[in-house]
Amino acid sequence: MVEPGRPGAFLARQPLMLALGDRRRGKRFARTAWAESFALGYGLLAALACGGAWFVTAHAFWQPLLLAAPLAGVQFWYDLHKQHRALAAELYGATALGAAAAAIVMASGWALSSALGL
To answer: For a disulfide at 105, which of 24, 40, 62, 110, Cβ 3.0-4.6 Å?
Structure first.
């Protein structure tokens, strides 16, 4: 099972980084508008997939993802500042992605304590 929203979030990452980088530099190019459009479209795809999973699984798998959200936020900050190969970014990113395994087994009925043991 693929974690809901993962493909849309994965595809949104690159155009989002491009648009945010242009914005940080105070520049606006034709690519910026395209990047914003693609990031918005893929972000909506991810949100719809997550909403559908929320409805179908009766909210069973969100706890590991919410616990990992701050770690993903730190990794995103490093990525935004072009330091995505720093040790902290790698560790936080890998740990945040590991929450997907716990979310998947929780969707199949495992308890949170067992799922976090993965």
So the answer is: 110
